[in-house]
């Protein structure tokens, strides 16, 4: 009797190798062994040889190969039964989606990451339906889920204050336009000599390397943008405090004192310093000041200009000296001032 040798298409062979590795990574070692048996058999190993390699009875190896011939990969999964495997109902899928949306911690687990084996356990606990982790991934894709990198949100943001703020920009815009006053947003940013990293195109398997010094030297910039005329102002200083902020305000005053302005600032502690507010009081004949809701950078268009600066100047860069970093910042800021059309798109959502 000739030994059974399965014939696999190269793509099928590669898929089974990948599934075997995934099963090992997920801790489903028995399934991994069955997949390995099919792969090795397709490479010319007989059931007898596989029994020795995989430390399994020859009868079991023959059974695995038969299951694969009849049922494909499904025949090798844990607890496989002939016929259609049990499926979740639409209602159960909705419940599972709610569980995923709530997150592992809300479910009572001490982790922030959903994994396929973990979700297979949840499905069995909640619905008494057994799924292999590989099937869980397919199920989630069909339900509209995918693996995604989380985005950070500010935990101390005040949602109620943000809701109250939403009508305020409209009133402020109308008032500024009616009085022909400038509408100015201020903000501050630090640009490190060891710059930030960002995804970029590169040859597969050869990511770019950016040298770092390990030093935490940075350049501190106070900035402001005038919304109507797309005018960007900035000033470099050694620290952020009430004194340096007042110096920057004096710089703005020379530009806007004769026209009038509405200034919107965030809640940095030195913005609320007594000397700063005394200065605001002394200049209230031409200047009106508003505070953004706490921890709400998304409401400040100047934040978008810092993102533009990093994207077009400092991301993935090595600056051997602070002077080199200053040169790049001066170039980007100068372009924003000379060619305001470059940054108009960042400001449109706020107009």
Instruction: State the separation between the terminal residues, measured CA to CA.
Output: 82 Å
Backbone CA Rg:
31 Å
- Biggest sheet: strands side by side, in what order? 3-2-1-4-5
CATH architecture of the largest domain, by name, is: 2-Layer Sandwich
CATH class of the largest domain: Alpha Beta
Number of helices: 15
- Beta-strand residue percentage: 5-15%
Q: Which residues form runs of ≥5 with pLDDT under 50?
A: 79-85
Structural class: alpha/beta
Superfamily (CATH H level) name of the largest domain? Ribonuclease H-like superfamily/Ribonuclease H
Number of domains: 3
Proportion in helices: 40-55%
CATH topology of the largest domain: Nucleotidyltransferase, domain 5
- What is the number of beta strands? 5
Average per-residue pLDDT, rounded, comes to 85
The dominant shape is elongated
| Run of helices and strands | HHHHHHHHHHEEEHEHEHHH
* Largest sheet data: 5 strands, mixed
Concise description?
The protein has 351 residues and is an alpha/beta fold.
Blueprint of the fold:
Blueprint: H1 10-25, H2 29-42, H3 47-54, H4 58-71, H5 90-102, H6 104-107, H7 116-127, H8 133-142, H9 159-165, H10 167-179, E1 182-192, E2 218-226, E3 231-237, H11 242-256, E4 261-265, H12 274-282, E5 287-291, H13 301-314, H14 322-338, H15 344-347
Helix pairs in contact: 1-2, 2-4, 3-4, 7-8, 13-14
